[in-house]
TrEMBL record, chain A:
It is a multi-pass membrane protein. InterPro entries: AA_ABC_transptr_permease_3TM, ArtM/GltK/GlnP/TcyL/YhdX-like, Ectoine_EhuD, MetI-like, MetI-like_sf. Belongs to the binding-protein-dependent transport system permease family. PROSITE patterns: ABC_TM1. It is found in: Cell membrane. One of its GO terms (molecular function) is transmembrane transporter activity. This is Amino acid ABC transporter membrane protein 2 (PAAT family). NCBIfam families: ectoine_ehuD, HEQRo_perm_3TM. GO terms for biological process: amino acid transport. Its main location: membrane. Keywords: Amino-acid transport, Cell membrane, Membrane, Transmembrane, Transmembrane helix, Transport. The lineage of its organism: Bacteria, Bacillati, Bacillota, Bacilli, Bacillales.
UniProtKB/TrEMBL annotation, chain B:
CDD domains: ABC_HisP_GlnQ. This is Amino acid ABC transporter ATP-binding protein (PAAT family). It comes from Melghirimyces profundicolus. It is a peripheral membrane protein. It comes from the Bacteria. Its main location: membrane.
Amino acid sequence: MVWKWDFTFNEVIPRLLEVIEVTINATLGAFAFAVMVGLVLALLRRSDRKWISWPTYGFIEFIRLTPPLVQLFFIFFVFPHLFGLTLSPMVAGILGLGIHYSTYLSEVYRAGIESVPKGQWEAATALNFSPLQKWKSVILPQAIRPILPVMGNYLIVLFKETPLLSAIGLMELVGMAKGIGAETFRYTEPFTIVGILFLILSYSASLLVKRMELKLDLNRR
Amino acid sequence: MTDTQEKRFTAYDIDGKEPIVKYRKISKSFGDNEVLKEIDFDLYPGERVAIIGPSGSGKTTMARLLMTLETPTAGTIEVDGRHLWHKEVNGKLVPADEKHLHEVRGDIGMVFQHFNLFPHMTIMRNLTEAPVKVLGLPKKEAEERAKEMLEKVGMSEKAKDYPASLSGGQQQRVAIARALVMRPKVMLFDEPTSALDPETVGEVLNVIKDIAKQGDMSMMLITHEMSFAREVADRVCFFDEGKIQEQGPPSEIFTNPETERLREFLKGFNVNGNGESQ
Ligand SMILES: Nc1ncnc2c1ncn2[C@@H]1O[C@H](COP(=O)(O)OP(=O)(O)OP(=O)(O)O)[C@@H](O)[C@H]1O
Ligand SMILES: [Mg+2]
């Protein structure tokens, strides 16, 4: 099979660029969801009340240990029957990947929270901060700084998982490449270009994470 | 309490004053380890009490119970007439909740051995965060207060810096200012100089002496600096094995220790008649 340049430039690249936004939106949407829900899970998991912390732990483990694809299918195909809730592929995708990654991020948050020295909690108590103020002013800012690079890496991993969403009919990069292939019987160019696009985006994101890591290291000194 | 007992008890004039802090039969155990044994202890408004004693005798635990960093196993503590660890419900004492602790705790401030400044905030923000968030002061007023206190501890120049760029002694001075801006009625100092380089101990002790001279705040000073205790304190309490073994004005404690334990303890510090450590 010979590589066709005109096909690549006139058909493949324009059509892929048209949907690259879909991939990016799904990534950012799911990540934003995971960042917020992950924190909530981490806090619930730490609760003194066993009837809160145990179910949270169970939920986290269950989600973490089952495939995201199954969760996506469940949300997309079963939710309509179960709750009468029909979601668009984009919303179902953001929800599914968001929940899945929130369980990973909850563990990351946990590590960050545990890295805050006991003396910080005690100083906050001595200044009579309320529990909520303690978290907001003292604990979370210190817990989140060191975990930012790890969170950045999860963003990249999540980005690379978005092709899963083609399975629930979302027209993102891989879905489009498959579509082009089905129409033209040419798969080499679309999938090569998809690979390159993922590489470019992942690589630039990883450079950003590296820079952040360096900056945090410098600031710590 | 008779006059002669009072004399023996503290050099401070407690005539007609009610204690601001009352420990009653306070016990604290960590597992099987009984660290404090039915302690009774009063602290008077404006009184400065030094707490001395060997390592592990329960000095830190004594202060942490008042700061609500540790829960007593038994007994009660009152602060300014209110129970700290208990609430009165229909005349009965029930364990306090966080809301109650929050109300009473405001009277207490604490300076830690390891400073515990907030590393992600500037010095100024370290001092204004609690006044703004906890006391609800307007930011401007909090900054005025903070500036005044930084001046007092000689740290005005560093207001915009972060804690990591300060020496240990400087950090501790800031930590003292941070506790003071909350205007507590009682200040706890837990070995404020024992984590410091010898060169910077003096500057911190001087700051504490200055505060002590102003005399409106009660102070509990846990320290191994005997000459400092002698100079600043109205009363010295000697802790050993979870009990107050002996207490009295520094002149008595350092020159005429009654118990053998205290005599032995003071030998370790080589304290002469003036309470100077050498
Ligand atoms: N959180 C804790 N868990 C278990 N044991 C503890 C805890 N805190 C203190 N202890 C124990 O309680 C005893 C008294 O400790 P405390 O810190 O009050 O002594 P201290 O008089 O302040 O000693 P130092 O002069 O060394 O500071 C020690 O035996 C210590 O090991
Ligand atoms: Mg101690």
